[in-house]
Amino acid sequence: MIEVKNLTKRFGKITAVDNISFTVNDGEIVGFLGPNGAGKSTTMNMMTGFISSTEGTVVIDGCNILEEPEKAKRRIGYLPEMPPVYGDMTVTEYLEFVCDLKKVKKSERKDMISDIISSVGLEGVKNRIIKNLSKGYRQRVGLAQALAGNPGTLILDEPTVGLDPRQVLEMREVIKGLGEKHTVILSSHILQEVSAVCDRVIIINKGKIAAPDNTSALSEKIVGNRVMLEIKAGRKNTDEIFEAFDMLVAVNSVEVKPKEGYFEVTAEGGDGEDIREILYNVCRENNFVILGMKSVDMSLEDVFISVVNGSMEEELITAARQEQEAAESEALKETEAEIEEIEDNAENDENDKNDKNDKEKEDTTGELKEEEENDGDL
Questions:
Q1: Average of pLDDT values for 200-225?
Q2: What does pTM read for this prediction?
Q3: Facing residues of 55 across strands?
């Protein structure tokens, strides 16, 4: 599990990463997206401990990356954009070298290397010199070194960059398989790849988290409900058709395009409301013949462009902040409950102790009184 809280990085007067927080749960594959200069690489470098943060914390499986760097880094496997391989070594020699650096026990290395080679598909080239391998296989070797030491978390920066279409598909399947045993953060500019592989995405823009959610939820937040109509509207012009739909309170926006005497109408609703019945009634009242009606899903590319262009950035940031505040409030309540329980237990212990002392005093007093009575009798 990865917990990033209030992470900030400043370079002089420039704030590259501005107070971002997010959590990646065990077993998740999360896409980390953002335009060039958004702070994506800086964030990943802080998460791996390559650079320190100005403020905030990164906790990997309970270990703070700055306070316990050695323990935290043992739990991370990192594949940078340019794989850190030694070309003059064979694949097996290189993995043995990496295992040595990561202090893997010698008794475990052989089986570990064999499992890694199998999981990333390097069986056929394991005894070949790395510099003689294709770009795709060198990329796999880079991924293999990230797996050495069996880290729980993998951070992959552009893992398919420079690969041909077949190699890209193969690498995607490898990453999906790794997601069954590891927590994966995947940075990529290929949005189709992120959509195909990742459970959810985190979009960073201008150093801030702009959208942390799965793609379908992001689509709902941005457009609500999008429907495309194809209609035949007699001699009505575009302005008249636009006005007929645009008067609807339940529809946020309408786009009308003439098409060979017919019209295409794309309408967007809000709050997840199904607006098809509303659109049907408008067509019936205005004598529009419906030739076709279908829901239109928003692609990750559409979501990304909308967020980066700022069309919904403030709303998404506000929603993310509210979710974060709600989570922090819930955590605070749990902490307060724990403190109250500890105080109650301490008070009960103190009461028990006082009761015990009182009982001992009573017993002592009784014994002394009995002794005095015995002395009097004598």
A1: 65
A2: 0.63
A3: 8
